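Complex record, two chains
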Amino acid sequence: MADEPNVHQPKTDIAPGYTFGTVTDQIASVVLTRRTPFFWYAAFGAGLVLLLLFLLAVGVLFVKGTGIWGLRTPVMWGFAITNFVWWIGIGHAGTLISAILLLLNQRWRNSINRFAEAMTLFAVACAGMFPVLHLGRPWLAYWLFPYPNTMGVQPNFRSPLVWDVFAVSTYATVSLMFWFVGLMPDLATLRDRTHNRLARFAYGILAMGWRGSARHWSVYETATLLLAGLATPLVLSVHTVVSFDFTIAIVPGWHTTFLPPYFVAGAIYSGFAMVLALAIPLRSIYGLQGLITDRHLDNSAKVMLATGLIVAYAYILETFSAWYGGNTYEQAMVWHRMTGPYAVSYWSLMLCNILAPQALWFKRVRSKPVFLFISAIVVLVGMWLERYVIIVSSLAQDFLPSSWSIFQATRWDWATYIGTIGLFLFLFFLFIRLLPMISIFEVRTLLPSAKVEEEAES
Amino acid sequence: MTAQGLDFQVSPELRADLKKWRTRSLAIGIFGALSSVAGLLISPFQFYHSYLWAYLFVVALAVGPLAWLMLQYVTGGAWGVIIRRPCEAAARTLPLVALMFLPILIGIRNLYEWSHPARVLADEALRHKQPYLNVPFFLVRTAIYFAGWWFLGWYLNRCSAREDSEGHAAVHGKMSAISGPGLIFWGLSVTFMSIDWVLSLHPEWFSTMFGLLFMASQGLTSMAFLIALMVLLYYRRPMSDILTPRHLHDLGKFLLALVMVWAYFSFCQFLIIWAGNLPEEIPWYIARLNHGWQYVALALVIGHFALPFSLLLSRDLKRNFKLLASIAVFILCMRLVDLYWLVAPDFRKESFGLSWMDFTAPMGLIGIWLAYFLYQLEKRPLLPPNHPHLEEVLEHGRE
């Protein structure tokens, strides 16, 4: 971090030399005119294959029940909840970039917010699969909602699992609205530029009659600010509520007071890792280095480093408090994690989440996209392991040694998990192909010729 | 108006004002200190307890700005340049704050149960914690906190002074290079400081949120103080030529954010412990939510969160100098209430109460600290004249 502090916003959020026309051309051509690169077919194809695997896994699950997973008493929250927490955490970076950085006037976000928001949506979609599949009878999922029913049965409002239903569904709704509202001006651009009649019809309907009048823009600005204001607390609240799923229970290793902010930091950590893991290949395949610049990668890496340090702080404090608190079960839990059946996972997560990302202190590492891509993948693995260790190790060895049992993931656990990665890739590359992956009009506001002071204030 | 056309030196009229404020706060400080010393003779027990919680407030005033200083070097931003000099002045008060720790050292037996060897032997929980909670190690840790804070403050001040005299090139990159590791040290030291000085008052209890809560509190205390100070300075040159509502708006946003963060941390800690209802955790809250203390807790919910939160949402209010400063001062008062609520129930288990020393101790400590702070503040120009982006910072305010 030894570089010069960027006081105020520097003038170069994107590479020099762009004009209104070239920005629009370059971004729109990916969807409209350019030949689809081989990379896209490969990635989309891989996504499709894994999606089919997911459908298979879910089909078998529906026929046979959750017994096909490795769930045995006492570990009833195995992969399903791990994956849920992992995916929903990944989504947080998108909301942070689109909402919080908008409110903070961080305009460099303008060229990464679109695909980060798409990432949020698809990650939430993947996350949403797991609690529903985990129900055992997913067709009764609507029982989670407090709807008026003849049986007079309501969900238990003191249970954080019910709060989760509201938190996640609100999050999904607001994210979708934010993304769609932000897309409208660009959909209109595509509508006006495409020569394909079907595409013009489809984009035309989705653009909802956007003509770009001053009135439209004024309403648009207000709507974006309001949605950003709504989405900002959601960055905190969703993962806070997810962490309550654990802390409200008095299981050793779960019940600790800093878990909410620690989960939020971990979520942003993994989310920025996913942003980097997506942005680095995309920008080199489509030649977008001028729009998603090294500065974007550098900033994202710095956010990753900062949130990673918060996560490291949490590990230190967790270990210290287990000893200081003097609770036998807490101490045993930490000891089991370090030396027990999950020791390999525990130490790998320490390596991936704490040790490896320290390389990001060095400018030389942050300026090499290849290194950044590798560290992003390492962090994604680390954060998955973290959720796995927290969930499984605390349940496998809790209070009574007589009820201890070790969780072993089955191939269906893996198939479902890898399947959702397929679902994510499938949706994401569909998005890349059909919609502008970078916000055209917002990037245009970054050009020197667009020196119109816009105020986005809270 | 350009940066070159402005003089950032403390103007003669401001100097006169600073002198006036300094004399007044010193008078209040000496009065408070002398009456507290009288209190020491009457009831040492009460004296040390009043001293401890008042001292925590002063620590936040001196150590909190250190975090703002390092944060602005790491992230940049116009807001940081505006408050840089007051933050540096606050960091220069750290030797005095370290000196003020001495009474706690002397009265350690009156404060911490674990400092009595006999009681430690008799209590299994205390015996378990003895490798950490013992007087020599406590002193070593305290020395490390102060040494680290002092070093960071000294180094950043020295770089800043060199920037003034030799130009920015002489210190380019140095401040941000130390600020990254410095922030890590700050986070860890504030965490363990909160464990040592406050949490160990109730040695059976532990909450992993406590350190974060103290970090947020220090940020909030110092930001509220800085806002009130900026508004005071605004009425005299040079700040009257520089400070604009937009600068203040930026600081107001931080205030709002920290009010929310404080509430978020406090509520999460409460909810988790309340829902868990475990015998080793809940007594801390039982002590703070019964025997009259529940009204203090309620006052915190309203005064430390609901009221400032709803007021600070307003954009116009954050741009109104007087209103924002009044809210900042109100928040500072609520910070005192919060510290009292954190510390005092461990000494007043039977019921809520206040001693006259709970007024004289903060008067003495804050008064003396403030006088010293104002003395430090007037030594340097109020903005860094050789800052490379100064023009943009001033421009930022006029946009």
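Note: Confidence is low (pLDDT under 50) at residues 1-11, 454-458 of chain A.
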